Amino acid sequence: MHINPYGSDKASLAVGLVNADPGIDPPAMGELLRHYKTTRPTVDAEETADLLAWAAKLRVVFEAADLDERIDVLNRLLGEAAIQPTIARHDGEMTPHLHYSLDTDSTVKRVKARTATGLAHVVCASGGGRLGCCAREGCTTVFIDTSRNGRRRFCSTQCANRIYVADHRARRRA
Ligand SMILES: [Zn+2]
Ligand SMILES: [Zn+2]
Questions:
Q1: Cα separation of 149 and 164, whole Å?
Q2: Domain count for the chain
Q3: Rounded to the nearest whole angstrom, what is the distance from the C-alpha of residue 107 to the centroid of ligand 1?
Q4: For ligand 2, a single-atom ion, which residues have Cβ within 5 Å?
Q5: C-alpha angle 39/146/154, rounded to 5°?
Q6: What CATH number does residue 47 fall under?
Q7: How far apart are the CA of 13 and the centre of ligand 2, in A?
């Protein structure tokens, strides 16, 4: 059971991938995947390129102009990810839960399935508005809005502060 319905590991992995440096090398990509609890996270150059191409597609989900577009894009990605739901229990230790890919699938396939379903859960649990892209011009960082009122505009307090300071200066000049 997730305590925060918008902040699952799978959705966080999607955010991490989209925000990854496009020049990321395979060892760093492996670290990123490991950080978001991906099993068998080691990837080669070709797999890293596949994941970066996938990340570019995921970005469109965050940047979508409206909910219709967001859902269209995400539905296409769910199809492309070739989701295969199975119920898993991890040697009986945990309560049964859904997996969206097989443990035997390649790392790229599992990451595609996890990220697409992770974002789909956020969209469905939140009414669609909890995925965002930083509103500061020149910042392309995406995020999941876990704020109470769901009106977060910036990726970080640094970006928010830079806008605040710029606005303040503009007002003083005016
Ligand atoms: Zn599991
Ligand atoms: Zn930002």
A1: 20
A2: 1
A3: 15
A4: 134, 136, 139, 141, 155, 159
A5: 105
A6: 1.10.3300.10
A7: 18
